[in-house]
């Protein structure tokens, strides 16, 4: 039987270079693909995201979302909002299912939800 090792969502972006700069500022290491395709790879603490350039992308209609499990949602929110980056940032709140969750919508309309376990 085959064992899966990991997964990497592919996020559509309008401009690979702009998306790379945005995610670098969020703390990801970003590497552009050297081939003809407008594609890039991002990694932070073992979490991988991929980006594919879609020139006709309308951020207002994007349905892409990724959930990131982190150890401190408040610290992540503070660090990300301190960058002054464009996009929308939602402060973490406690949920009734045991997580403290926040979110960031990047300039291309990709929703990054993140959460950490509540300490009781």
From TrEMBL:
The VOC domain is annotated at 3-117
Please give the biological process terms from Gene Ontology that the record holds.
response to antibiotic
Alphabetically sorted, this entry's keywords are:
Antibiotic resistance
This protein's record includes keyword Transmembrane helix: no
Family matches, as Gene3D superfamilies: 2,3-Dihydroxybiphenyl 1,2-Dioxygenase, domain 1 (3.10.180.10)
The superkingdom listed in its UniProt entry is Bacteria
Signal peptide (UniProt feature, chain positions): none
Does the record's keyword annotation contain Secreted? no
Pfam families in UniProt: Glyoxalase
Cross-referenced InterPro entries, in alphabetical order? Bleomycin-R (IPR000335), Glyas_Bleomycin-R_OHBP_Dase (IPR029068), Glyas_Fos-R_dOase_dom (IPR004360), VOC_core (IPR037523)
Q: Which family does it belong to?
A: Belongs to the bleomycin resistance protein family.
Protein name, please? Bleomycin resistance protein
The record lists the organism as Actinorhabdospora filicis
